[in-house]
Every structure is written in structure tokens, then in C-alpha cells.
Amino acid sequence: MEAVVSRAAASANPLEIRRLCHDYAMKYVNIQREQFKRLGVTGDWDSPYLTLSPGYEAGILTAFRALVARGLIYKGLKPVHWCTSCRTALAEAEVEYEDRTSHTVYVRFPLLDQEKKEVVKSLENPSILIWTTTPWTLPGNLAVCLHPDYDYVALAHNGETFIIAKAMVDAVAKDCNLDDYRIVKEFKGRELEGLHCSHPLLNKQSLVILGEHVTLDQGTGCVHTAPGHGNDDYVVGTKYGLPVFVPVDGEGCFTNDFPLMEGMLVWDTNVPIINYLKEKKLLVKNGVLVHSYPHCWRCHNPIIFRATEQLFMSLDQNQVRQRAIKAIDEVQWIPRWGRDRINNMVEMRPDWCLSRQRCWGVPIPAVTCSGCNASLLELAVIDRVIEQVREQGTDVWYREPVERFVPDDFRCPHCEGKEFTKENDILDVWFDSGASHIAVLEARDDLNCPADLYLEGSDQHRGWFQSSLLVSIGARDRVPYRAVLTHGFTLDEKGEAMSKSKGNVVSPLDIVDDLGADVLRLWVASEDYRNDMKLSHEILERIADAYRRIRNTFKFVLGNLNDFDPKLHTVSYAQLEELDQWALHQLAILAEKIYRAYQAFEFHKVYHLTYTFCVVQMSAFYLDVLKDRLYTSEKNDTTRRASQTTLHYILNALLRLLAPIIPFTTDEAWGFLNEAEPSVHLAEFSTIPAEWKNEPLAQRWETLLTIRSEACKALETARRDKVIGHSLDAEVLIKTPNEKLYDLLCRYLPQLPTLFIVSSCVVAKAAVSDTQEVAEGQLPVLVSIKPAPGTKCERCWKFGIDVGSQKDHPSLCQRCVDVVRRNKQ
RNA sequence: GGGCCUAUAGCUCAGCUGUGGUUAGAGCGCGCCCCUGAUAAGGGCGAGGUCAGAGGUUCGACUCCUCUUAGGCCCA
User: Fold this and answer.
1) What share of chain A in percent tops pLDDT 90?
2) Separation of CA A337 and C1' B58 in angstroms?
3) Cα gap A580→A645, rounded to integer Å
4) Which residue gives the smallest C-alpha to C1' distance to B41?
5) Contact at 8 Å (CB) between A600 and A607?
6) Residue nearest to nucleotide B2 (CA to C1')
7) CA A358 to CA A579: how far, in whole Å?
């Protein structure tokens, strides 16, 4: 962001850049806030915590102060991108890659102590051959790095021996015109660890070390290593305890650490160095190469890697690392492998480089003594900074003179000096976010630390989760969170990452515009977020279908509750039909499973459970069967009111259960339910009465449903044979040899036509032989279909022999006649 | 190259979790049919996987181990 803003305002001062960055950030804060609202995200939108607010900034510095007080902050050298003409460090985003022609050199590093290792003892004038495109970094050389597991060879040529990687022999021999060479020895890289070579330019030694970063795509497999001039070199050098040697100053000129060319600009030394190596017979071959090389985005000059003083948080002082690793096991990681992921990262990571050479951020509250040039981090100074930042924000550091932050009686502890200048660097932004448990949780009365849950994508095991943990352990010696949940990433239909260049990006905002926020939310809920989630046209289409189905179920139930007032018409549980009790049993089971799924953060199970419930239990069975009762019974008939009571319970519970997932739809439906709470989001998950769960009843009904399914199969056959069209055209005959089944069927005989949605049913005993064909595991029943006897009642559509028995209602069955007559009264 | 993760029907998920064992389940979609009093709806029936691939352990593996392939996140 600072780069974007700086490019727009070329020659702005720090305060101006900071103002532009602030406005830029606020613009996106507001955009994002509106987007979150549109997505139905719950939040305290009027008082978000913003890392750029004065209170938060003071919190960041409070965290930093605690680390200083515990002795965890130190200065060290670390290589950064450095522009020699701008005299400044560059962030990754400020580096642009352009083609550049570089000098390439093959240089021999003669072995000094070949007698120390058996494998090289007998070699004649052995040296390790390196290749580099930056000859000017050779003065900074401290080591030669080999891969421990690669094969290396000793290649004899003209009375001397070169050591290079076996895989590179052909390329190197060709490049260096080594015609008749012989391979005299072969060994693994690790066998040479600890040997010494003579330094090509300085009167010192170069250590042979091992590193996994060594590659075989270019060079010799032996890497010239200058810890002050490269990140890999720095990291591997640190492992071997090598110093960070930088013979180059801020203007890109050699210091007196390389007396031979002291004061010369590094770019001007490549040729002199090559000539010098030639003289010393150390150069095997030189050439040129066009390759992509980092340049400064501002002045377009090539940049260098140069170690500069940076501020670090130590992880091994006070055993921060060990304590963090111990603390990781106090946290619940969801999914569980998150523990291994962050554990490995904390175990392996280097000390945290906290300083950045930028101006948009929280300034490091250090002062430099003008007398002795010592950089000072003093608690007394930091406290004054915190105090003023809390009131005025961190601009105060840039706006006010240093005297405002240094107590009058303060003297440099090294030289008693009393003149100081302010530090220019800021803190890493990961420190900003990593301090939220101090800047927010500790600061707000309505919040507590540790937090119940941190929730982010799995990339944050290296980001926020880790920075929070390290700041928290370092500054407070406690975990910042009790649980950490991570989700995967959204991928395209093939499971590949979305990117602009691939053109497979699907914007969530477009989905919201096309299908609505609840459909997008339903999709999120439907996927198992613990893995990566695929998004495609088909998937969205499926979800939109499912959404409509759920919404339609709400609509259907609401329509049938139109004349139902729960206060007046509710029927007691005991008065409900068994079918209704079955439905409430199913609801109770569903609610139980959903509670469990929510508690386990398994939202996709909530989706699948409710969706299947709406489709299978409700739409395809209960609601379908209920239509006869709802449409043809007398308005105030107890059984009709019983069905409405049940529907009311079911919808009420469903809306509460789905409110977190489809908040807009459930709240809209809730409005028609006339409940006490004005919004479903103010209602709680309902407690399901214990009596609703009725296992014996459920088991009887499971059998009935199995028979129903047999009946449906038979009805389908009859439909195919043109015996019937609608199921109400049919009479079902069920025969079974099984006593228990027969008794069950007789017991429920009056209800069977309703359950099967047919006009009549007949149950009969069958001989055992009749059902021998029935496969094992299936119920021993035989179902046959014939057209229902009688004529069709105009009102309830059922066939009956009693239709027309009343002269004043020639097209109605007796049941309908009774209802019609009573309604007239 | 390293750490961690994923791979079950067209789609989304079950199953496999330190406890391997009859014909691998569901819903959607699809096909065919019915209905028209949930209608930019509703109902029924049906066809689809041998569990990414290879090898191993075992009497027996989707389920355990190894490798390979494809993909993801984070590093290098």
C-alpha cells in the first residue's frame, strides 16, 4: 500500500505519505464493512478495532515495551534489498525484475587442509570450483556450500583437481574448456563438511559447509556463500555461526574491510576483481549472462543484497520458543493437524526480524545518541511515546521533535550524551496484528484474554496465529487463544487455485448479486471447510436449488399456518396424531444431531441434515400426507389443529437452527410466525421437550414406512401399466404371512390409506409360500394394486362407495358431506 | 527441495477416527413416469462409484504402511 501511495505522490514527506496511506486504508475499511454487512456477518460494526487507531497503536507499543523489558529485543545484521543510489532498503513489493547483463566467473577455492579428510587426501592440488554472477560479492565470501546428499566428483585436469557436483560435470567441462579430464574420486557433499579453502581476495579462510538450498540447475553445485549479501547465505551462515560480514557501505562502496578496492562502487569492481583473480591464477573462466535481476522501482538501478542493522525478537532468550511450543498443546486446534503445522513452524523459524524501513506503520520508539551513535531502546522513552500515541496516534512521532519523548534528565548510558535523534524504522505489520490480544482483548471491558476462538485460513499458521502466540508468550507468558480454527481455500472446479492470469476467479460479491447472500452462505456451510473448497457453476446451481427447496418448505408451512394462532389453537402432545408425534420425534433427533454438529464446528453436517430433513421427512412424506387433513378437515377439527401445532413446532425449530446459516431467509420467515422475539437472531436454539423423543413409536413407524415404500413401488408398476394415474386412484392390497406384521397392519389399517395417499387399503394373511420370493432383509409383504372401488369425491379426491349417498351433495363422500354441513352451521 | 493437508458415484457429503471383515450409503442432479389445491411448485420409480494409481502388511483393506500422480497452504 505504501508503495502504491508513494508512487502516486512522488516526493512526499513521511507525514504526507502516512496521511495518504491512512485515507487509503480507511476507504477499504469502509468498503469491507459494507461487504460484511451485505454478507450477513454479525459484528459490532460501529466500533471495529483498527490497527491504525491511536488506542490500538498504543497497545502495539505496550506489547513491544513488555518485550523490551524482558530483554527479548536485540539488534542484529540481516541482508535486505538495498538500493545504493537511493541509499535505502526496499520491501519486496518495491523490487522490480528486469533483464541485466552480468559477469559470470568460475573461481577455484584451493583446499587448505586436504589431509584432514580421507576422501580428498590423495588428490593433486585440489580446489573447490564455484560459479557466480556477482563477482563483487566475493570479498564478502565466508564459505563454500555443498548439498549434503548430492554426489560430487574430483575431476583431474592438467595437474590439478576440481571438486564439483557430479551432475554438473558435462556442463562445466564444456563451459570451462576442460577437454581431457578424468574423474578420480566420487563422494557425497556431506563428506567434505568442515574443510577450509583459501579466500580468493582476502587473507583468510573460507569454510566448507552444507545446505539444502543448493541446486543443480546452474553453476557447479558448490555455492559461493557471503552471509552479508544473500538470504540463503545468511540463514545457512547463521547455522554455522559465521559472522554477517558486509564490506560494503550504504552507498554501495567497499569499506576498508576490502582494502584492495576500498571506496570503489561495487558495480565498478567486477572487472578489476576478475583481472585480479586472473593474475592470482584463481579464475578458471569468465563470461557474461543476461538474466532477470532485481531493480529499484523508483530509480530503476540494479539493487544489491546488503546486511543492515535490524531489530529482532529473540526466540531463545527466556526460552520463548520452548514455552511457545509447550503452550501450543494447551490450545484446541481445529482441525487437529493445525497443531503439527504451527509446532513445526515455531520449532524451525529464525528469530523474528521486527524492523521495516518504511514510514506507514507503528514507529519503533528508539532514539540514537548523537554523541556515540548508539541506538537506545529505553523504557522511560517508550513510556512517554505510548502516552502520547494513545492521545494523538503515531503521527506524533513524526510530527514532534525528539525532546518530546526523551525525559529531561535522560542521558546516554554509554557516553552521557544528551542529544538524540529519532529512529526511522517501523515495526513489522505482523507485530501489529499479533498484538491484538493486548490492544483489544485486554483493553476492552467486554472482552477477555485468552480469546475463545481465533478463526482464519490455514495460511495464518505462519501469520497471525504465530505472531499472536509469540507476542503473547514473550510479553505475557500465556496463550492468546483457547482454540484456533482454520479453513481451506476456495479453488475452481478442477481444484486449482484461482488467479487472474488463469481467468478462473469467481467473486463472492458477484454470487451475492446473482443469487443472494444466503445462497453464498449456504454454499459455505455445505462444504467441509477443513479441506479446500471447490466452487463451480454446477455447485452453485445445486446450492441454489437446495436453497429454493428449503425456502419453499418454509413457505408451504407458513401458508398452512395462515389461520393458526398458537395461543388459541395449540393442541397438547397427547392429543396429536401418531403421525404428528412421529414428526416431532424426527425433529428431536434432527435437533440433537445439529446441536452436536454446531458444537463440533461441523457446519456442513448442519446443512446436509436439515436439507435431507426438509426433503425426505417433510416434503416427501409428512407434508404430503398432511395435505388431506389440512385441506379437507373442518377448520377447527382437532386433528387439523394438531397438524398445525406440529407444523408450527417444526418451523419454529428449523428457523432457529438455520438462523446462523441463512440469516436473511430465516428472519423473513420468522416475521410471519408472530413469536415474542422480534427477530430470530434474538431467539435461542429451542429446547426440545423430552417427550417428543419416542423410540418405540419411531420403530413401529419405521416398519410402516418400509411398507409404504413397497406400496410406492407397486403403485409405480400400476402406473406404468396404466391401471392408475394419481395414487388416489388406487386401492392397495397387502398380504403377509408374518403374524406381527399382520397385527401391526390391522392396528393401523384406518390410517394406511392416508399414509400411502391412496383411496383404500385391504390387509390379508398370506401363505408362507407366497412370500418366499421376497429377498432376505426385506419385509415379507406382498403388495398389489387395483383401481379403487366407488367414485371420486369432488372435494377430497378420494374414491369411495359412499360418494353420492347424500342427495343434496351428489359428488361428495360422507366425510366431506359432514364437514360441509357443519361449516354451514 | 522441506513442513502440513487433500483425492469415495456428474455434484456436495457419510463410512474409514490408535477398534480393517457380509452386496460402499444419503441427498442433489440425470432418465422415465404421475400430478396440477406448495406451481419460476409437488410426488414416485430407476440408472450411476470398487473408493486417484501402484506395491506391501493380512486369511481379508475404501479403512494400516510405502511409493507415484494430481492439487492446496506455508516456506525454501
Assistant:
1) 74
2) 29
3) 9
4) A552
5) no
6) A212
7) 71
Q: What is the CA A665 to C1' B40 distance in angstroms?
A: 18
pLDDT at A647: 98
* CA–CA distances in Å: residue A43 to residues A29, A39, A55, A490: 14, 11, 19, 23
* Calculated CA dihedral for residues A436, A437, A438, A444, nearest 10 degrees: 100
pLDDT at A3 over 80: no
Q: Is the dihedral of CA A727, A730, A736, A740 positive or negative?
A: positive
Q: Stated in angstroms, how far is A580 CA from B61 C1'?
A: 44
* A712 closest-nt by C1' vs CA: B44
Q: What is the 3-state secondary structure (H, E, C) of A714-754?
A: HHHHHHHCCCCCCHHHEEEEEEECCHHHHHHHHHCHHHHHH
Residue A455 pLDDT greater than 80, yes or no: yes
- Contact present, A464 and A456 (Cβ < 8 Å): yes
Q: Phi-psi bin for A263: left (phi > 0), alpha (psi -120 to 50), beta?
A: left
* Residue partners of A319: CB distance under 8 A and separation at least 6: none
Q: Taking residues A699-717, what's their average pLDDT? A: 94
pLDDT category at A11 given cuts 50, 70, 90 is low
Contact call for residues A805 and A749 (beta carbons, < 8 A): no
For residue A560, the model assigns a pLDDT of 97
Nucleotides on chain B that have an atom closer than 7 A to a protein CB are 1-7, 10-14, 22-23, 26-29, 33-46, 70-76
The CA-CA-CA angle for residues A173, A174, A178, to 5°, reads 45
Confidence of residue A767 (pLDDT cuts 50, 70, 90): confident
**Which ipTM score applies to this complex?**
0.95
Q: Which residue is nearest to nucleotide B27 (CA to C1')?
A: A612
| CA separation, residue A492 to residues A499, A506, A534 (Å) | 10, 8, 5
Q: What is the DSSP letter of A526?
A: H
Q: Please state, in angstroms and rounded to a whole number, the distance separating the CA atoms of residues A135 and A32.
A: 49
Q: What is the CA A482 to C1' B54 distance in angstroms?
A: 43
Query: For A638-651, what is the mean pLDDT?
Result: 97
Query: Of A105-119, A166-180, A231-245, A790-804, which has the strongest mean pLDDT?
Result: A790-804
- C-alpha neighbours within 13 Å on the C-beta side of residue A146: 27
If you compute the radius of gyration of chain A from its CA atoms, what whole number of angstroms results? Answer: 40
Q: Give the residue nearest to nucleotide B28 (CA to C1').
A: A542
Q: Specify the pTM.
A: 0.87
Query: Residue A462's Cα: distance from chain center in Å?
Result: 11
From the number of C-beta atoms within 10 Å of its C-beta (0-12, 13-18, 19+), residue A197 rates as: buried
**CA–C1' distance A429–B21 (Å)?**
56
Q: What is the DSSP letter of A111?
A: B
Averaged pLDDT for residues A218-234 = 89
Using the CA of A539, which nucleotide's C1' is the nearest one?
A: B11
Q: Point out the least confidently predicted range of A1-5, A287-291, A440-444.
A: A1-5
* Contact predicate A1/A360, CB 8 Å: yes
Distances (CA, A) of A387 to A71, A403, A461, A560: 22, 14, 33, 64
Q: How far is the CA of A491 from the C1' of B6 (A)?
A: 12
Please classify residue A756 by burial: count the beta carbons closer than 10 Å to its beta carbon, then call 0-12 exposed, 13-18 middle and 19+ buried.
Answer: buried
